[in-house]
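User: For my dataset I need records formatted as: sequence, then structure tokens, nothing else. Please produce one.
Assistant:
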Amino acid sequence: MNLLLVYGLICLIYHFMEFFLIGIIHGKSSVRSLLIGIPYIMAQIFLLMEFLILGEKFSLPYLGLVGMCIGLSLRWTAILQAGKSFTHELRTEKEPNHQLITSGVYGFFRHPSYLGWYIFSLSAPVFLGSPFSLLGFSILGWYYFRARIKEEEKYLIQLFGESYQIYKDKTSSGIPFIA
């Protein structure tokens, strides 16, 4: 199996689907919907350089592939279930169609799209056999999501009040050690 080719295809599918799903849900997409920014590009470069240096000796391609598929499936399911309530940007004001989603995958995790992306991002270095990227992605991703969830939930409590607080108290964020 050509790991770089497979990983490249998975990344193309990931970015296309993010763009496509936002377009379907909101009737339009922008380049921002591709979710390609400087930190992401830097992480990908580090991951690929590590793979080119270490080769496939640490690779667990089937485990990584399964993890990436699970992560992306969870993320896309969350996006579809949230519908118009899902955006890539934090909402600070309630839109007319903005609803608190607590069923489906949201019944298990408050932030299933974040959990899905986190699983995907940790599975990519497993797939390519890049242990330093796995360590870096797990730490940096955790800190990113801790800050993002804290900020997002501040607004969700303002938008949905006690309903969100009750949901928050009884439902895991999905990402370990993030209350």
